[in-house]
Amino acid sequence: MSGSIRGFLATATIILFSTLGVLAIGPASATSTWGAAQEVAGALNTQNNAIVRSISCSSAGNCSAGGYYHDSAGYQAFVVDEVGGTWGAAQEVAGVLNTDNYASVTSISCSSAGNCSAGGYYSDSAGAFVVDEVNGTWGAAQEVAGVLNTQNNAIVNSISCSSAGNCSAAGRYQESVSSIQAFVVDEVNGTWGAAQEVAGGLNTQNIASVNSISCSSAGNCSAAGQYRDSAGGQAFVVDEVNGTWGAAQEVAGALNTQNNASVNSISCSSAGNCSAGGYYHDSAGYQAFVVDEVNGTWGAAQEVAGALNTDNYAIVTSISCSSA
């Protein structure tokens, strides 16, 4: 795997510093305490370098997690399921694709117990993949964005499933030596479709990525990330309504006077009702912001944590909405 490809993936993922993948066992009820953490993927992780990158729970005691581990061949992607409160054995995914031994699950989403989807990256020449679990059985991973990804440098950064077999994934791909674009791809009734570029009209300097995606129902999702125009780095959101992705729009532009902004996380409780958060750069430094969508219309972004952020270096890294 080339240094340029490895470097590109590293910017979108956590550098491989951790030594063990560990899961905390959650409380059985609101009044319970956290249990003891337990190692996962230990039998696979023969070179002692593993991490859980993402976890999703559809009900109490029914969760799935994914990440990477290191064996004698290299870095491999894995998933592991909790069923009825008991974590099972981790299993490799995308192994057939990962011929250059550099892979990871970066995001996982479960709509019901035993029905999940995961996404990430692998290296034969560096591609993005998705893999589905149906009724407790993980299937074969498949490449997404391959037709777009002519420079063989892609990653799924985020995946969201609203029901079994109805998911969306998003990330970025490289279409030329000097052009990185953002993409989304939908799964409808268990079949993954063709990936499509988003924010292309905004991304005039050809560096863009979707960092987060959230689906409230099948065909109704929102995604967000960053792009670069002639002024610098900007934050964007884009909505899918009834299966059709619309035009991306800039957010936090009025705040982002130094032109370095991004949305890092988005959450939708129902179609057209979402919130997003990230950072922007003003004359003082880096500030955290949130922005709301109400009934399909995105409002003005607002700074958060300003009174705390006396050294001007803040960021929203995650957001979650239970209702509009």
Q: Pairing-aware structural class of the strands and helices?
A: mainly beta
Distance N to C terminus: 45 Å
Residue windows where pLDDT falls under 50 for at least 5 positions = 1-20
Order of helices and strands, N to C? HEEEEEEEEEEEEEEEEEEEEEEEEEEE
What's the alpha carbon Rg, rounded to whole Å? 19 Å
Note the total helix count: 1
Quick one: how many beta strands?
27
Would you give an account of this structure?
The chain has 324 residues and is mainly beta. Helices cover 3% and strands 51% of the residues. It contains one helix and 27 strands. Strands 3, 4, 5, 6 and 7 form a five-stranded antiparallel β-sheet that branches. Strands 8, 9, 10, 11 and 12 form a five-stranded antiparallel β-sheet that branches. Strands 13, 14, 15, 16 and 17 form a five-stranded antiparallel β-sheet that branches. It is globular and about 50 Å long. The relative contact order is 0.09. Mean pLDDT is 92; it is low at 1-20.
List the helices and strands and how they pair.
Blueprint: H1 3-12, E1 22-23, E2 38-39, E3 51-59, E4 62-70, E5 75-83, E6 86-87, E7 91-93, E8 104-112, E9 115-122, E10 127-134, E11 137-138, E12 142-144, E13 155-163, E14 166-176, E15 179-188, E16 191-192, E17 196-198, E18 209-217, E19 220-228, E20 233-241, E21 244-245, E22 249-251, E23 262-270, E24 273-281, E25 286-294, E26 297-298, E27 302-304
Antiparallel strand pairs: 1-2, 3-4, 4-5, 5-6, 5-7, 8-9, 9-10, 10-11, 10-12, 13-14, 14-15, 15-16, 15-17, 18-19, 19-20, 20-21, 20-22, 23-24, 24-25, 25-26, 25-27
